[in-house]
Amino acid sequence: MSGVIRVALAGNPNSGKTTLFNLMTGARQQVGNYPGVTVEKKSGRRLHAGTMLEFVDLPGTYGLTAWSLDEKVARDFLVESRPDVVIDVVDASNPERSLYLATQLIELGCRLVLAFNMSDLAEDRGLRFDLAALSHHFGAPIVPLVASQGKGLTELLDAVLQVATADSVGGSPRFDYGPDVERALGAIEPLVARDETVRLQWSDILSQPGGARWFALKLLEEDRDITGRLAGGSLAATAGRTVGALAAATGDRPAVLIADRRYGYISGACQETIRNTIEVRHTWSDRIDAVLTHPVVGIPIFLAVMYAVFKLTFTFGELPMQGLEHAFAWLAYIIAAHGAAMPAILRSLLSDGIIGGVGGVIVFLPNILLLFLGIAMLEHTGYMARAAFLMDRYMHRIGLHGKSFIPMLLGFGCTVPAVLATRTLDSRRDRLITMMILPLMSCGARFPIYALLIPAFFPSAWYAPILMGIYLFGVLLAVAAAKLLGAVVFREKTEGLVIELPPYRMPTLRNVLMYMWERSWMYVRKAGTIILGVSVVLWALSTFPVKPAGSETLTAEQQRSEQLAYSVAGRIGKAVEPALAPLGFDWKIGTALIGAVAAKEVFVSQLGIVHAMDPAAEGGETLRERLRGEYTRLTALAIILFVLIGTPCVATVAAVRAESGRWRWALLQFGGLTAAAYAITLLFYQSGRLMLWLAAR
Amino acid sequence: MKRGGLHGNRLSELPAGTRVRLVRVGGGHAVHARLAGLGLVAGVEIDVRRNDGRGPVVLAHRHARIALGRGVAEHVLVEEASDARGGGGLDGSGGARP
To answer: Which residues of B touch A101 (CB under 8 A)?
Structure first.
């Protein structure tokens, strides 16, 4: 056989699918997204017995319904791309549940190979298989496998080649859904084949043997995707009536009857071919859970684990981060010192714009690598599911999922990795709401702003209470925003928690490192390009137009200050001054806020430049003195409030754009938070003034 | 195949340590589809492993441990399992025999 054989890898979450995929493809993997969605698509190749096999890793799913994004993505891929062979990775110690997915793959007409993974564990649990007989029931070869040790791989690939080169899928069973459902199928099937919309939109399915039957089955299951796309047509109306009649006659929706019959088939097949010699009721994994999810000590342990991840990300990341910052500063210096041959503008673009921009991307990399190392450990050991379980009760109150807690906590460090951490959420609704509220968790880059302003205006006894108040206010706003978004934008209720608590496992180094590397690289590639572009734009805004050299002699600080005032950024600051005046801001604060869009901490340096002060000089005291002379305490608090709520930084916008897959969400967040910041700061400043005025009378 | 009316208890009301048979999953298609994928369909026997009266309920089905949010568990109707049938046998409602 010539040409490439396309193989899709399906299976339940925690079935060892990723381990098998890594084993088969090694480091030759490509990571991308399925079209239009943010579900990750990994593919890779391997040469076996002279034939090139191309593997695509489908999302880990328990079925192929349209009720979850992952399942719909997997199904659409199977329907549209028609892989030559599908490997279904079955958890051999839990075969019946895993085979439910197999029944749906068979219904779709896939050429199937069943990989019975973790077969060693299944044996330990007392399961004995008659694989030949079971294989006969499902019309697919079954290969026992221990993916974590690489056992059974050659046999599996042989089976794939054999199935790919076989003439037909003749051996696949045709499930019988019982007289009621079968009668309904018989009535709808011919209508499907005649329907104009179906023939236009699903030609690839209809051309398959059994395609019309699969389609009729989905109509009876009231499949959300298919009924939605057929809405209003006569086929949908007929199907709706049939479903209603079936439900009235049997007392169950057909979807329930169909699922029961699939399990009935599986159960019948397994009863004949699998023997259970011992029953294990309490495993060692249960004993670990007795401690880790304990009603009293579970939460403190969880918080300690989170603290460790936090610490890992931001403390160990600190040193390499500083190293990178120095390296980029040195690079900028080299260009400034030795680039005399270059025109000044080009030098400035290279050192301030491009190196500043690339640096802005790369300096986050140590944090991000470490964060994903932490998340990989949580995911691969099985602890992540327990964390969701523990936090669900609390998060449910604000209309979110237990898993949303982890990104929110990480948001106190840096919003960008927090946005990336929302990947662990399954439902798109929960993911988007979490992403939208993350900038309200006050990130580390906002700290320098607080550290400049609070000591400038308040006695030291007030530092901690004010700082604490800022953080708490952010959290309260996040809770309020989550409730508001849940009530207005994402009306559907949060999907209740349904999560498997997989047995605790020792993660393999290879899986952890690959997870960490893939996700970090995606960040660099996708967020990086946007951050670089916007950094160059912001550089241009504060550099052009260039102020002509005057006759007066100025210090370097004064020159930079004059230049910034003359630039587009300075002019924008002056132009929006009337709009910012009600918040207590002058044009200098406005100009500094434009800089904060590049990165929050830039606010401090920009404020220093417009006031012709070096913020680093004498620990910032000279700048603080200047600020005290120009602004009031109320203005200082207003600045803090505005920076806390408004204008998420470019890196956040880029990360939200990349992770949500749409500019819409990133821009909605930017606009919404900035508008909220304006309104809240306005209310705060004006009522503060009113109170001061009343107090003075 | 037809099952009785609304007899049975809500899973959310049962204490840990109870062994029950699943009667019906209410609460809509999405919930039914998700639970079916995890093997939780009418007729299977499950152990309630954890129920603190608030927060999610943890149950054991074969070797799997599954946490259901309280809202989901309220929609799962169960009945006391006769222990004679229990004991990890490969049960299941009568379906299409292979």
So the answer is: 37
| A95-108: average pLDDT | 93
Out of B30, B58, B87, the one facing A501 most closely (by C-beta) is B58
Cβ-defined contact of A261 to B54 (cutoff 8 Å): no
Q: Is the ipTM of this complex over 0.90?
A: no
Distance from CA of B54 to the nearest CA of A (A): 7
pLDDT tens track for A501-512: 988 988 888 888
**Residues A364, A528 contacting (CB under 8 angstroms):** no
Chain A to chain B Cβ contacts (< 8 Å): 180
pLDDT at A633: 93
Residue-wise pLDDT tens digits, B46-96: 999 999 888 899 999 888 899 998 889 999 999 988 654 433 334 434 444
Tokens in use for A448? 């320098």
Touching B: A residues 201-240, CB under 8 Å: 222, 224
Interchain CB contact of A137 with B (< 8 Å): yes
Task: Please check whether residue A545 is in contact with residue A604, taking contact to mean a CB–CB distance below 8 angstroms.
Answer: no
Using CB atoms, pick whichever of A65, A255, A274 lies closest to residue B90: A274
Q: Which of helix, strand or coil describes residue A435?
A: helix
Q: Retrieve residue A653's tokens.
A: 């916008």
Pick B94's closest partner by Cβ from A62, A173, A264. A264
The architecture (CATH level 2) of B16-80 comes to Roll (2.30)
Give contacts of B18 with chain A, Cβ < 8 Å. none
Whose tokens are 């599996």? That residue is A156
- Residue indicated by tokens 């684990």: A305
Helix or strand run (H / E) with residue A21: helix A17-25
* Band of residue B7 on the pLDDT scale cut at 50, 70, 90: low
Give, in order, the Cα–Cα distances in Å from A240 to each of A226, A251, B27: 12, 16, 19
Q: State what percent of residues in chain A have pLDDT above 90.
A: 35
Given CB atoms, is A346 within the 8 Å cutoff of chain B?
Answer: no
